[in-house]
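Human: Note token order:
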Amino acid sequence: MVHEVNRARRTDVLRLVALGLLPTLAQGPVIRRPHAVRVAAALDSNAWACRALDGLRERYGPGPVLVSVAGRQALVLLSAEDAHRVLGETGASFTAASKEKTAALSHFEPDAVLITRGASRKPRRLFNETALDHPAPEHRFHEAFRAAVREEARPLLRHGTLDWKRFHAAYQRIVRRIVFGDAARDDERITELRDALRGDGNWFMLHRKRHRLRTELFVRSQKYLDLPEPGGLARAARATPAAADVKPVAQMQHWFFAFDAAPIGAYLALGLLAGHRTEAAGARTDHAYLRACVLESQRLWPTSLAILRDTTVETRWPGGPTVPAGTAVIFYSSYFHRDARRLPYADRFEPEVWLDGRAEADWAIAPFSRGPAECPGKNIVLFTSATLLAELLRLQWRLSSPHRLGPGRPLPRTVDHTSLRLTTADRPAAADRPGVTD
């Protein structure tokens, strides 16, 4: 297929900024701003952004469109073929360490592999893949992870209601236990530090670096790595050979950060199952199906609103002009995940596409990215979320908030997870009730 690179007119750029860029920035590219998420869901801002991208495709064709925003040149991808090319050639013609991503993440993880360029990237990536057992479907410590999930799920089963605040707090305890070990379960300060620095990252280079907070975060993290018998992924990190420039505690910061998007996908998957009672029946005992539900939740509402790359060399699309090194490349996730031209299931809940290979074969569906920069912790996240859903589905949940997550009409492109509420009339099993232990 021959694509030409076209330069968007000023009016089209303004429309894209107003309907796509500004709502994305307002919601928080690094850590979500609840009030902005609520407004975005009310306006269904992702749908408006997708319409703006459809407008570009109608006017300029399916090839990448060059836009200029505040002096920064960027290619906006509009075809699945180009998305596949960019993701597949990351590390060669494109880098995941884009200018904007580096500015955001350097607030709290300046040496993480995701924003590393040059010779250090390969050993850091190898360290991550080795410690995280990528691409094995289960980590070597998966039984310990399962035990942590089950313990933290029990209190959630003792009430007749579930909201985001309680769910998120439980998931954060799980994350601390999986990343740093059981000793970190109640270390809420380490989560507070991470979130404060992530909030700074929402402002990219406009916010000053708070080195004191970052030092405290790293010191607290190193403490768990230095325990006589570290737990969780800290144990795997210490057992993994690492050259001096790898900086294991720096790589662990990304595990800690990247895991934080997981509860959004898991909670929305639970909401989808509550809205699709037929699909929920029997799902608890089918781990593969629950894993597919989490992936489908991430397809419908990507937690990475956009995937960013920068060109590393002069790059040419067949039939089009060459763009210089340092050009930004934008993959707007919802546009590809909900593309009705290619996906007959675009706006409905269909976890089966992850079981029969349709979604895996489509590189434009990339909830954990694809290719050389695919998230090496993908399977740990999916294992954790699916295990938690299995525990929670001991009860039958129904939606008690006005979210449109059931069948019968297209699912919204934007959803507010923070206001989602669930209720149940079921009673938990005896072992899950207060005062009863195993």
In short: The chain has 17 helices and eleven strands. The first helix runs from residue 10 to 27. The longest strand covers residues 306-311.
